[in-house]
C-alpha cells in the first residue's frame, strides 16, 4: 500500500504552492479542494471506484485537477493525445473501452460515438461526497498511455502506483530534491514526461509551473529570472532555448539546477552551448513502459561519456540481452518497480517481459564502467521533436493505399526536429508526396506524415524477409553525402 | 524486492565520496571493496547467509564496514551499545542468540562466554568469495536494536529492508536531498539515529563525515566552514553547539541545511538561539520501532507550533487512539512501511500492534491542523542526553536490593542532559545514594543510575495499584519550587 498521493500531501504541507499557471497559483489545499469538488461531479455523472476514464484535454490546470479527481475517485485514466488523428483516437478509445470520455468542449467533435461528457458540462454538475482512501494498493493502475511497439499497433501501457512512485523516488535519489524546487512543465501531460512531473509534485511537495505549450520567450524569462529550478525538455526544445539565450546574451539563473533532456540523444554541440549558458544537462533514457527515466547521465559525465544515456537509476536494473560483456551490443532489458505490469485491451494477454525483465526492443551496450549507450531505437523508432513515431505504424497506414504494394519508413536527421520520417514505396504507379500525405492525414497525426517519398523497385530485406530499415537510412545518408 | 543498498550505489556513483573519518576518505568503490573483503573473512569464520551476528564496537569506519559486510553476506546484525553494563549486554546477547559476536579487541572482556571473534583477528583471516545478491527481500531483517518498553525488559526490535528504505525515502521527500550533501554523524551507530544516516548515505549517494564521538569544537568548525550540510543531534548536543558558536561569535555556513533534533522536545529558547546562529532546526519524533523519524516540525512552523513534533512524514500515518478529535489526548499510534514487524527472542510472540498500527505507549494529541504534540513519553520514558531510560527497567534493578520493598523512578529536568533519573524507595532501613548506585553499577549503564534518592513511606498508586510516576515527578517539581 502507498499513501493517497494528493491527500497525504495536503495533510503535510497544505499551504505550500502546488501549481502556477498564467499568473494564478494554487496551494496544495486549494488544489485538493478543487480536485475533491471535481471528483464529486464525476461521481454524480455516474462513475464509480474502479472505472476507466479517458481524458482528452489540453495542458491546463483543469486537466491536472481532472486527473487527480479521477484518482481520488479510485478510477484509472487513459490519457489521450490531442495531436492524434481521429482514426488513431478512435482506435485507442475502442481498445481501452473506457466507461466515459471526459473531453474539453472544443475537442468533443473528435470523440465520435463514444459516451462522453465535456469538462464544461461536468463543472455545472452538483458534487457528490467522496470517501477519501487513505492508501492505495501498489498494483492499482493509475494511468494508461498508448505507445506503439514493433507491431506498429498502439498498445495501452498500464502505469501503476508502484511504477510511478518507484520512478519518483529513484529520481529524487538521483537528481536530488529541494524544498524550494519549482518544476517547469511544458511537456504534454498525456506524455509520461509531463505526467511524471505532476506525480513528483505531490510526492515531494513541489510547485509546478505549467505552460499550455512550449513558449521559448517565457521559458527563457523563467530560467534567467530564477523562477524555476528544474525542467524537462526534448532536444528540439533545448536547441530553441539555447538560441534564445544566445541571442539575448544571457545565462540561466544559478538557482536553476536540472535540465532533464529525454526523447533521444542530445547532439554534443548542444551540450557545449548549454554549459556556456550555465544549464546543467541531465540526459535521460526512458519510455512509457518505465514511467519515465530509467537511466540518466550526470552533468559531470556528459563530456567524458558523450552519447551515453548514463547509469541506471538507483531502483532500476539494466542489462543487455544474451551478453554480460562490455561493449557488446544487444537488446536493452530493464527491471525494477518502475516497469509496467503490462498492457490493456487487445494486447492484454501479450507480454514483452521475461522473469521481470522488460525487453525494450532498443539496441545498445554497456561500456566497461556500466554506462548505457543506446545504439538503435526499438523497431527503428523515429523521435521527432520528442514524439515517438513507429515506422511500422506509418507503413501500415501507407499500405492501405490501393496502389501501394510495399512500404518502408525511416527517420532522417533534421536540424529542427531531431528526426523526421521519410517513406519508401513500391507502387503500381507514380504517387506524389502530396497525394500520399493527403491520403494519410485522417489516419495519422500530422507529425507522423512522411516528409519525403522515394519510389524504389524493391525493399531491402534479410533472409527471413524482414524489412531492413537501417539500409533505407544508410541509402539516404550516402545519397545526401554525395 | 529492493536493490542491494551498497552494491547498487557502487554501480551508480563509484567515485563519489562515501565516508570521511579523521582526515581519511573512502569513495563508494573503496568502501565497497573493503566491505567485500570483510564479508569474505566473516564467511571464512564460518558464517552463512541468514546468520545473526552481534557487533560491539565503537563508532569508526571499521564498524560501518563490518555492518555492510554482514549485509552483503545476507546476515542480520544486532547492534550492541557499548555504554550498557555487562549484565545488560549479557541479557541482550542471551536473548538474541547470535551465531557469533564480532567485537573490538578492547571490548572483548565484556562479551563473557559467548562465541566471539575480535575485529582484529577477523582482519587477519583470508577472505572467501561472496556471491553478491542483486536484490533483497523487503521483509529481510537487516538490523536489531534493543529498546525497553512498558515492561522494563529490553526487547530486540527488528528493522527490515522495507523499514529502513521507507524511512530514508520519506526523509528525502521531507527535508530534501542534494547531490553535494554531507551528513555529520556524531550519533552512536548502534542507535537508529546513527544507523539511519548510513542508510541514507548509500541510498542517496551521500557522503558521511563520521566522528568517533561528539566533539563540539570540531563540530562547530565543520558547521562554520561549510564542510557539512546536515547533522543529527539531541537537545544536549544542540545546546553545546549553540554555546560554542555564541562564545566564538560565529554563525554556521549558509551551506548548512538541516539540524535534525530528536530524542525529546527542544526547549524554546534553544530555538531562538539557533535561529540567531543561522541553524535551520528540524525537530523530529521517532523511535527504534519506526527506523528513526516518523514526524518532523519544519523550521517555518517552529515558532508557530512551539512544542510540537510536527507533521507525519509522507510515508507515515499518525493517529491518537480512541479519538479523532483535535486536542484530545490519547496513545499515539503509528502506521507505515517504516514500522517494525516486531521483536526477536523472548518477545517474538508479543506485539504492540493492531491492524498495522504501532501502539507507542506515548501520550499525545493532534491539534486542529494535524500537528502532533507529545505530552508524555511512553512508560514515563526519561530521555537523558538523547539516551532512553525506562523507569521500569531501573526500578526492576533497584528492587533486586534485599532491603528495598518498593521503588519508583522518574526523570527531572537537568540543565545539561535534558533529564536525569531520580529514585524513590520504600525500604526497611536507610540506604545512601552512593550505596544504591554501587549496587546498581553492574546492572545498569552509568547514565541510568539515579542521581538522587528519596525515602518515602508508600508509593503513589492508582486504584488498580499502578505506580503513578507522574505524581512522583510533580512532588519533586513542587518541592523544588518552594
TrEMBL record, chains A, B:
Recorded metabolic or biological pathway in which this protein acts: Quinol/quinone metabolism; menaquinone biosynthesis; Quinol/quinone metabolism; 1,4-dihydroxy-2-naphthoate biosynthesis; 1,4-dihydroxy-2-naphthoate from chorismate: step 5/7
EC primary class: ligase
UniProt keyword terms in alphabetical order: ATP-binding, Ligase, Menaquinone biosynthesis, Nucleotide-binding
Swiss-Prot/TrEMBL GO biological process terms: fatty acid metabolic process; menaquinone biosynthetic process
AMP-dependent synthetase/ligase domain residues: 7-343
EC number: 6.2.1.26
Single GO MF annotation: o-succinylbenzoate-CoA ligase activity
Catalytic activity: 2-succinylbenzoate + ATP + CoA = 2-succinylbenzoyl-CoA + AMP + diphosphate
Positions of the AMP-binding enzyme C-terminal domain: 393-466
InterPro entries for the chain: AMP-bd_C, AMP-bd_C_sf, AMP-binding_CS, AMP-dep_synth/lig_dom, ANL_N_sf, MenE
Family, per entry: Belongs to the ATP-dependent AMP-binding enzyme family. MenE subfamily.
Protein role: Converts 2-succinylbenzoate (OSB) to 2-succinylbenzoyl-CoA (OSB-CoA).
Listed name of the protein: 2-succinylbenzoate--CoA ligase
Lineage of the species this protein comes from: Bacteria, Bacillati, Bacillota, Bacilli, Bacillales
Gene name of this polypeptide: menE
Amino acid at each position: 500500500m502507498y499513501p493517497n498521493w494528493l491527500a497525504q500531501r495536503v495533510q503535510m504541507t497544505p499551504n505550500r504552492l502546488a501549481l502556477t499557471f498564467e499568473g494564478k497559483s494554487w496551494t496544495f489545499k486549494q488544489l485538493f479542494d478543487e480536485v475533491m469538488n471535481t471528483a464529486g461531479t464525476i461521481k454524480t455523472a455516474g462513475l464509480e471506484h474502479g472505472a476507466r476514464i479517458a481524458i482528452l484535454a489540453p495542458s491546463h490546470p483543469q486537466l491536472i485537477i481532472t486527473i487527480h479527481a479521477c484518482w481520488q475517485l479510485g478510477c484509472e485514466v487513459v490519457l489521450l493525445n490531442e495531436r492524434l488523428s481521429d482514426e488513431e483516437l478512435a482506435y485507442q478509445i475502442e481498445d481501452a473501452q473506457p466507461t466515459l470520455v471526459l473531453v474539453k468542449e472544443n475537442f468533443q467533435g473528435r470523440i465520435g460515438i463514444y459516451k462522453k461528457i465535456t469538462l464544461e458540462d461536468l463543472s455545472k454538475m452538483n458534487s457528490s461526497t467522496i470517501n477519501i482512501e487513505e492508501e492505495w494498493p501498489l498494483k492499482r493502475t493509475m494511468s494508461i498511455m498508448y505507445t506503439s511497439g514493433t507491431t506498429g499497433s498502439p498498445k495501452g501501457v498500464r502505469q501503476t502506483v508502484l511504477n510511478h512512485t518507484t520512478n519518483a523516488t529513484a529520481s529524487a535519489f538521483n537528481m536530488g530534491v529541494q524544498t524550494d524546487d519549482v518544476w517547469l512543465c511544458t511537456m504534454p501531460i498525456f506524455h509520461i514526461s509531463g505526467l511524471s512531473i505532476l506525480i513528483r509534485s505531490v510526492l515531494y511537495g513541489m510547485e509546478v509551473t505549467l505552460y499550455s505549450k512550449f513558449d521559448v520567450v517565457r521559458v527563457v524569462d523563467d530560467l534567467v529570472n530564477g523562477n524555476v529550478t528544474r525542467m524537462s525538455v526534448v532536444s528540439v526544445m533545448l536547441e530553441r532555448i539555447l538560441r534564445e539565450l544566445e541571442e539575448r546574451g544571457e545565462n540561466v539563473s544559478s538557482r536553476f539546477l536540472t535540465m532533464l533532456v529525454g526523447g533521444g540523444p542530445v547532439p554534443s554541440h548542444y551540450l557545449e552551448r548549454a554549459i556556456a549558458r550555465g544549464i546543467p544537462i541531465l540526459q535521460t533514457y526512458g519510455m512509457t513502459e518505465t514511467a519515465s527515466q530509467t537511466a540518466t547521465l550526470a552533468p559531470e559525465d556528459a563530456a567524458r561519456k558523450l552519447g551515453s544515456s548514463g547509469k541506471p537509476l538507483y531502483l532500476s536494473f539494466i542489462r543487455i540481452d544474451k551478453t554480460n560483456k562490455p561493449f557488446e551490443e544487444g537488446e536493452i532489458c530493464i527491471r525494477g518497480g518502475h516497469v509496467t505490469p503490462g498492457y490493456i485491451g487487445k494486447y492484454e494477454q501479450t507480454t514483452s517481459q521475461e522473469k521481470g525483465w522488460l525487453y525494450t526492443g532498443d539496441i545498445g551496450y554497456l561500456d566497461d564502467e556500466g554506462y548505457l549507450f543506446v545504439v538503435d531505437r526499438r523497431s527503428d523508432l523515429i523521435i521527432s521533436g520528442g514524439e515517438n513515431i513507429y515506422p511500422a505504424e506509418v507503413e501500415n497506414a501507407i499500405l492501405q493505399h490501393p496502389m501501394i504494394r510495399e512500404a518502408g519508413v525511416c527517420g532522417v536527421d533534421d536540424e529542427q526536429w531531431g528526426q523526421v520520417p521519410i517513406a519508401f514505396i513500391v507502387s503500381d504507379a507514380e504517387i506524389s508526396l502530396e497525394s500520399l500525405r493527403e491520403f494519410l492525414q485522417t489516419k495519422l497525426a500530422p507529425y507522423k506524415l512522411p516528409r519525403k517519398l522515394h519510389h524504389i523497385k524493391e525493399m531491402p530485406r534479410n533472409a527471413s524477409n524482414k524489412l531492413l530499415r537501417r539500409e533505407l537510412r544508410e541509402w539516404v545518408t550516402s545519397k545526401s553525402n554525395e
